[in-house]
Amino acid sequence: MAVLILDGEGLQVFNTLSGKLEPFNPISSNHVRIFLCGPTVQNLIHAGHARTDIFYDMVARYLKHKGYEVTLIVNMTDIDESIVEAAHQTGVTPQAYADRYVKAFIEDAAKLGVHSITKFTRVSDYIPQIMSLISGLVAKGRAYLDGGDVYFDTTLAPHFGALSHQSPEEMSLRPTELAPSKRSLTDFKLWRSALIDDQAWESPWGVGVPGWHIQDVGVILTELGQQYDIHGGARELIYPHHEALLAQAEGITGVAPSAKYWMHTGLLTVDGKKMSKSEGNMVTVRDLVTKYGPSQLRMYFLSSHYRQDMDFDEYKLDRVDEEFWRLKDRAKLIRDKTSYRAEKGGPYVGLMPLYGALDMDFDTPSALRCVSQLVDEGARATTSTAADSYYGAVLTASRILGVDFFG
Question: What's 12-265's CATH class?
Answer without folding.
Answer: alpha beta
